[in-house]
Prior knowledge:
By secondary structure, the chain is α+β, with helices and mostly antiparallel strands. It has two domains: 3-79, Beta-grasp domain (Ubiquitin-like (UB roll), Roll); 88-153, [2Fe-2S]-binding domain (DNA polymerase, domain 1), CATH 1.10.150.120. The protein has five helices and five strands. Strands 2-1-5-3-4 form a five-stranded mixed β-sheet, with helices on one face. Helix 2 (88-95) crosses helix 5 (142-153) and helix 3 runs parallel beside helix 5 (142-153). The radius of gyration is 15 Å and the shape is globular. GO terms for molecular function: 2 iron, 2 sulfur cluster binding; metal ion binding; xanthine dehydrogenase activity. It comes from Heliobacterium modesticaldum (strain ATCC 51547 / Ice1). Pathway: Alkaloid degradation; nicotine degradation. One of its GO terms (biological process) is purine nucleobase metabolic process. InterPro entries: 2Fe-2S-bd (IPR002888), 2Fe-2S-bd_dom_sf (IPR036884), 2Fe-2S_ferredoxin-like_sf (IPR036010), 2Fe-2S_ferredoxin-type (IPR001041), 2Fe2S_fd_BS (IPR006058), Beta-grasp_dom_sf (IPR012675), Diverse_Oxidoreductases (IPR051452), XdhC_XDHase (IPR050033).
Amino acid sequence: MATKRIDCTVNGQKHSLEVGVGESLLEVLRNRLHLTGTKKGCGVGECGACTVLVDGEAIDSCLFLAVWADGKAIRTIEGEAKEGQLTKVQKAFVEEGAVQCGFCTPGFVMSVTALTEKGCHCDREGLKKELSGHMCRCTGYHNIINAAEKAMREK
């Protein structure tokens, strides 16, 4: 397979990597950088478990080619808590009981983080629409939406 060298920043750390031209960002994050908080779910962009932020935008890393990450800033769930302090989104998920098995949680947290950083003030129906690309088999979504609402209210 043909390869290409990319330079990117992941969770504030610069990386220079040789990646396959058909390799997904998800594969690079998990297999090369050992950032396993980003989950491989469906592999076709339907479940949201692999959501990361690329230049502040929530993307499905299973569909995003690693070569597209050249020159980009990538954030994964591992880069969110600083010095053991949870972000307001992570705190809201804990406080609202929006975590069950945890498989989908990193993707939800990253998407809600992107929304809050953009200043989104969606109502409950708007949040459901914004998060419709995520699947959770445990919580029934009620607590996840509550957590998203709480995070958006926090300053």
